[in-house]
Amino acid sequence: MAKRKFTKQALSQWMKGKGPESDVVISSRVRIARNLRNMPFPLMASPEQSLAVADQLLGVAESGRLNGLGKIEQLRLSELTELEKLVLVEKHLISPNLASESRGGALILSPNEDISIMINEEDHLRIQCLGSGFQVNEAWDSASKVDDIFEEQVDYAFDEKHGYLTSCPTNVGTGIRASVMMHLPALVMTGQINRILSAVTQVGLAVRGIYGEGSEATGNLFQVSNQVTLGQSEQEIVDNLFQVARQIIEHEKSARSKLLGESRLRVADRVRRSYGILTQALIMDSKEASQRLSDVRLGSHLGLLPEVDPLALNELLVSTQPGFLQMTFGEAMSPEDRDKSRAELIRSRLATPS
To answer: Which intervals carry biased composition (Basic and acidic residues) (predicted)?
Structure first.
């Protein structure tokens, strides 16, 4: 089945670290929120209305209008198990909100998983485009093209004064959220992170954890995104994020250089201790795994752990999550069982030659 492809493979193409500035930026994302005119928004829609919306939007894919994206797949959320939905959340292909919503939820995915189109999430349509590394403008270009295809086929809820109408007032206007997922261990280790993130929020950007709003920033991974969607054009929003993210990248690289120059032995000791624990531990909870993998990722990019394949670390970001662990080992697990299996998986993956 098509869904097995998306739930059995931990690493999407956009997580393979091939993009620019991939030592600091894991991925770039642009998400566009849209609703259909003359239909209740998902939170107020009846099950019948939600199914009608899903049928209409999936019909755009079935018509062949999206063929330029490759061999797309369509998934109805009602046909997925709770574990399969959790895995799709862990891979950032659907939101936790969509995973918990059972009324007419659906998903359209491109073959390499860089385009994910969510149906009946908080809004009728959420177009998400992802890119490896620092590729915000490229993600925006892709999202805009997909948006144009849908807009030619369906009637969007649009107001001349306020722009595109959305369920949440913070998305009204352009309906665009642009974000970058950044690995900032050096800024954390040098005590600069709070100052940097405080400055970011003062220029209209938000900082969240790896899974967006309400999630914790574990493993020194931070998601930086725009807060304002009204009163600015889409390109202005993307450009603002690009400029601020560029500055954060430079600050992180400067902090890494400082660590190497002033504390090389101490940093090398830290990353090698984490590597030793990851390759020897018999039990590993998710929080410790995130932190240890962050240390090793930093060591790999600084040349302190040349034997470690950065691709393996990107894969472990997903494959060590609770849902994916249970999918990999083919059984429901208690937290203790997951901790044992997580340690086993990490030992096995890091023991594989790069």
So the answer is: 335-347
